[in-house]
Amino acid sequence: MLPNRISLMAMLASLTVMGCGSPETTNSLPTPSASATTTKAVTPSPTTSASPKVSAEATAAKAIAVGDIKELDDNSTCGKSKITYAYGETSNYRVYICADASAPERPRYYISRNKDGSGGLDMEAMNYNPQKSGTIEFKNDGYIYTLEAPTTQNPEPVLRVTFPNGKLSEEQLLRYLARNGNSNTTTANASTAEPLQYVLDNRESLGVCKDNFRAEDGKRGIGSKAFQISDKKYLVQIQCFLAAYQGAFEYVLWIDDAPKPRVIPLDFDGFQEGKNGEKPKRTTDRSIAGLPRFNVRSQTLTNFTKFRGVGDCGSSAIYKLEGDRMVLQEFRAKYECDGKYVQDMPVIYP
Question: What does UniProt give as the signal peptide span (predicted)?
């Protein structure tokens, strides 16, 4: 039987866990025509032919190389009176983020060059700062060009184009260079520390992990952490405690409102085994047990829970963050602990 809130905590010692999902995107960025290399911003069309695609499996197999911008072989792309702020490289592109020498801490120029020599993009941020926590974003006519930085929250960064209709095209980074080697990573880690610490400091008044909490477990296993959703919005994950195989977790949204942050607790729907042959019953709970994984890009959270250590029974769920709610997308479960193992558990919902 799927445990309720009270029995969930007691059963954790016999549970174990597994992985997560990925966003629905393509693996190649739109390629502009050769004439697109200009001193002005150039926007590709969604119908523009793409450069040769690289499979997700092949790209993911290549570990990203991280270093200082001084390692760049050719540091002249940005031009005179400018410096190279960051550099990203994928299978098909080289992207140079440049800054004015008079304002070296603020990125202003985006220069992309296709490795096949077919062209590229040149953009300038005139009235906004492209630097975000863990990313650099340039906007042009409804398109957003994003260079992600490798961080502890995002170990597999990408180069992404977001189209006006919301569709994404992205390639995984193979190399990332920054001034002083890790400036973006330091910024990202510092930004997530504040919402996490706020929730931990106010845990009792917020009602987080009120049934059972072990502070020493917060840095073990998956641990407690925060994920940046937007400039002022974070998803905060608190590991209430860690048992032998998996932990108990609760989540809140932390929103940077004045005069003090606003915190919204999140609920998770699941399905409990029906009695006497009845259909599984839908339940709602603040806590989940397992090894949850949150994907920032797709804003989906996946979780797998074993009902006992041998793994012959359990459940899996996929949730998507929509506004201030975690919406259940799929729930699978095998309730009978009969010593038989299945590759895919039966679908309970939808």
Answer: 1-19
Show the domain range for 60. 34-181
Nearest to 22 by CA among 322, 330, 226, 298: 298
Decide if 121 contacts 219 (C-beta within 8 A).
no
Please compute Rg for the chain using Cα positions: 23
| Residue 302 covered by a domain | yes
**pLDDT per residue over 110-159, tens digit each?**
999 999 988 889 999 988 999 987 889 999 888 999 999 887 667 788 99
* Total count of domains within the chain: 2
Query: Considering the entire predicted model, what is its pTM?
Result: 0.53
All residues at 6 or more sequence positions from 17 whose CB lies less than 8 Å from its CB, including other chains: 245, 246, 290, 291, 303, 304, 305, 306
Residue type, 171: E
Tens of pLDDT, residues 203-225: 999 999 987 898 888 877 788 99
Distance from chain centroid for Cα 56: 16
Rounded to the nearest 5 degrees, what angle is found at the Cα of 163, between the Cα atoms of 160 and 168? Answer: 45
